[in-house]
Design a protein that fits this description.
It is a single chain. Helices cover 16% and strands 50% of the residues. By secondary structure, the protein is an alpha+beta fold. The protein has one domain: SH3 type barrels (Roll). A five-stranded antiparallel beta sheet has the order 4-3-2-1-5. The longest helix is centred in the N-terminal third of the chain and has 10 residues.
Length: 64
């Protein structure tokens, strides 16, 4: 999971994140000063999600 997040940050890809409680979030990941949390930018603002609360991560890659 960390490798997918690192690649998405490096390439500016969008992430789809599903948490253990079933909620989902889609946005652009950004580097975080806390290695135990995922920082993600969405149209609603920035969110920090503890990695132990993430159950699934998918990279959304747009082909140009």
């Amino acid at each position: 999971m960390e490798k997918v997040i690192e690649l998405a940050i490096k390439h500016g890809h969008t992430l789809f994140v599903k948490s253990v409680d079933g909620s989902t979030l889609t946005g652009i990941p950004e580097p975080s000063s806390d290695p135990a949390k995922l920082k993600i930018r969405t149209p609603l603002g920035h969110f920090w999600i503890p990695l132990d609360e993430v159950s699934h991560v998918s990279r959304l890659i747009a082909f140009k």
